[in-house]
């Protein structure tokens, strides 16, 4: 596989974690970073050993040596930034959530298809060995017929109307920020929803602080999910079947531990992890591009669109 030059659009915490993971990816060159100010870009470049720092997004997008752009801006900018990159002919890995509205995502997908440019949502959990193992266990019948997923994600966040977690203009709210992970898992393992019931407690800004979700899927399957900025939830996931339970332990969306419980006995499932976990999604992007693909078969754009529709239903349950 050829070497690929990565451009990092945004200099926040998540961008730093992604670059740390990128260091474990063979043939990945951490080439450029862009921020709204040159000073921030230079600080990031010095900290993570990035070759070139740009003071505007467009300057990096216009760099002919950038092959792939990872977008790590706030949720409200993902749509705009992705269109900028696609229109310039750049392959894109965009942080979750892809967009704030279904119509925006559909426009992005249509543009990527029309230009035949690679596009993928940075739902890093999809490519972790832990998630891959859970899929294998379920498909092998390790817990019989799976019927219920119980998953949550919550932490106590200090309220501020200006925080990206609570500011509606920045795409705040617990569902968009962390509830997407339980929703992702339910869609991945149980498929599309037949019906969704949701209730939320909202902040003064109108964004949700805590949301509970019950989803009915085909084959008599149900997901019971929650997200919260008010309290620290267990942040684990359980897949309950007719013959046992698979547990993704605390911080289930990250590289973690897995166990399987059958007949009252629990056994830990060994998983080997490389890097910090963000490297797996980067490897998928480079593999797909090297094969001439414009989307991932493991995380196709149709999946992200269905996930966005589920989020939209949850957030507009009134």
Provide an overview of this structure:
The chain is of the alpha/beta class. The protein folds into two domains: 4-123 and 277-291, Rossmann fold (3-Layer(aba) Sandwich), CATH 3.40.50.720; 129-272, Dihydrodipicolinate Reductase, domain 2, CATH 3.30.360. Helix content is 33%, strand content 26%. It contains nine helices and 14 strands. An eight-stranded mixed β-sheet has the order 8-9-10-7-11-12-13-14, with helices on one face. A six-stranded parallel β-sheet has the order 3-2-1-4-5-6, with helices on both faces. Strand 8 and strand 9 (208-217) form a beta hairpin. The termini are far apart. The mean pLDDT is 97.
């Amino acid at each position: 596989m050829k070497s690929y030059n990565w451009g990092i659009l945004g200099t926040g915490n998540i961008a730093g974690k992604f670059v740390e993971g990128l260091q474990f990816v063979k043939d990945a060159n951490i080439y450029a970073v862009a921020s709204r100010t040159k000073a921030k870009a230079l600080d990031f470049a010095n900290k993570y050993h990035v070759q070139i720092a740009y003071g505007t997004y467009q300057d990096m997008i216009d760099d002919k040596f950038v092959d792939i752009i990872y977008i790590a801006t706030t949720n409200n900018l993902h749509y705009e930034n992705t269109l900028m990159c696609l229109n310039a002919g750049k392959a894109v890995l965009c942080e979750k959530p892809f967009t704030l509205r279904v119509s925006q995502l559909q426009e992005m997908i249509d543009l990527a298809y029309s230009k035949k440019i690679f596009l993928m949502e940075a739902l890093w959990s999809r490519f972790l060995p832990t998630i891959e193992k859970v899929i294998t266990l379920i498909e092998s019948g390790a817990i019989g017929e799976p019927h219920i997923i119980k998953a949550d994600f919550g932490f106590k966040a200090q309220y501020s109307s200006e925080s990206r977690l609570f500011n509606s203009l920045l795409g705040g709210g617990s569902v968009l920020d962390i509830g997407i992970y339980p929703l992702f898992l339910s869609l991945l393992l149980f498929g599309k929803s037949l019906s969704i019931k949701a209730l939320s407690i909202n902040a003064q800004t109108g964004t949700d602080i805590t949301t509970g979700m019950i989803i009915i899927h085909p084959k008599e399957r149900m997901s019971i999910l929650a997200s919260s900025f008010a309290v620290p939830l267990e942040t684990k996931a359980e897949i309950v079947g007719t013959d046992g339970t698979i547990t993704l332990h605390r911080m289930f969306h990250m590289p973690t531990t897995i166990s399987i419980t059958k007949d009252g006995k629990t056994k830990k499932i060994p998983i080997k992890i490389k890097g910090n976990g963000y490297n797996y999604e980067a490897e998928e992007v480079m593999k797909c591009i090297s094969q001439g693909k414009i989307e991932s078969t493991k995380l196709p754009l149709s999946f992200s669109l269905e996930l966005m529709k589920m989020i939209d239903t949850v957030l507009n349950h009134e």
